[in-house]
Amino acid sequence: MSSVAVNAARPETKEQRAWYWYDWANSAYVTTTATVLLSPYLTTVATAAACPDLPDGADCTTNLSVLGIPVSPGSLWFYTVTFTTIVSAIVLIFIGAIADRSPRPTRLFAGFAWAGALAACLMFFIAGTNWQLGCVLVVIAGICLGASLVIYDSILCRIANENERDRVSSKGWAFGYLGGGTLLALNFALDIFHKDLGLDRAMSTRISILSAGLWWAGFTIIPYLGLRHLTGTVATPIDKQAGVVRGSLEQLRSTFGDLRHYPQTLTFLVAYLFFNDGIQTVIGSSSIYGSKELGFSESTVLGVFLFVQFVAFFGARLFGRVAASIGAWRTVLYGIALWTVVVVIAFVTPSKSLAVFVGLGLLIGIVLGGTQALSRSLYSQLIPRGREAEYFSLYQAMERGTSWLGTLIFGLVYQLTLSYRWAIICLIAFFVIGGYLLSRVDMRRGIIEAGNPVPAVV
């Protein structure tokens, strides 16, 4: 395989423009529900169930019973995300194998997206002390989101060549932050004027959660229609008599056997497991950290997150431009270093210090989209052609909304210390380990070993 790029970057295609819209669609759920509203709301519901007579501002010291296991209400969200990811790690690798063999991968992608959106809409009915419904719907929505993203991410390899992927992936992420920010702005307005509309805070939160599910479902129609002509591809044909499921199991077994032949790809995946777990846990815990540890109101937290969303749009585009000059690998390494700074600042931020909280949001917005977008395009260069969904299923098991080790440690540390500060400072280890492992990846060698052309700038 030649070690030079063989495909020139093209003008933006209609498939690429359609592909961006799923970032726009699902980011509404990721931002409004999974990141900002549901973690503190579900914690409040769980606390009401465990400590119904708790005075305002007091810590609930009574545990819930989850399948006989004592769980602090403040840790319930993190354990739920952890459980979702463990299940996803098993389910998504089968989804990837099936998707590569499916004759209509876009239909499969849309089916998972709409199932997840339905679960997101049903979260409207979480109320009172019904935390169990919330946990079940979080699991369903998380698995469906991950399954849809396995196929969606793999389509990147089909619609963009090696010199376009950093740009296309970064623009998709930026588009996602713009979409998520737009709905969050509407929900922010609802939160501010909820009393004028005759709503209490709980009902305005539930309506906002419902809007995210409807947004996710509605805008998924655009990429479905724009990409529905794509057909499945399989690099290694398997006996047709095996069928989709049995053939997928055989293909999956082959994937794990082949992965040892791609040491750079394997090292990247392990590195991604660590630094992405750190990113996801910071994102997933930031709302509850701002409200429960720093003492800000839900309106303030919503406002800061809205600010972060629009900064992230420009941050993702900025990282894409930097990557075009120095390469995505170096850019992601610099981004990981900035994430370490974010955790340290969060740990020392004084309670009620709005200026520091907003400054922290600015830094998160700059680094947020770029590291994730470029990680996606980096990995796309390291997987063998024709098995994209199968390999992206391994990647997606560690992707946004499905991190598990970070949330598990975060929940455990909080349960032991009743302090979110000590929980968040532990995340530094994830960025240090992930950054070190990523620095050991030889991208040029890995791209060639996977049989792909090397981009002009690595």
Automatic annotation (TrEMBL):
It is a multi-pass membrane protein. Keywords: Membrane, Transmembrane, Transmembrane helix, Transport. Residues 264-458 form the Major facilitator superfamily (MFS) profile domain. PROSITE patterns: MFS. Its main location: membrane. One of its GO terms (cellular component) is plasma membrane. InterPro entries: Atg22-like (IPR024671), ATG22/LtaA_families (IPR050495), MFS_dom (IPR020846), MFS_trans_sf (IPR036259). Coiled coil: none annotated. This is UMF1 family MFS transporter. It comes from Humibacillus xanthopallidus.
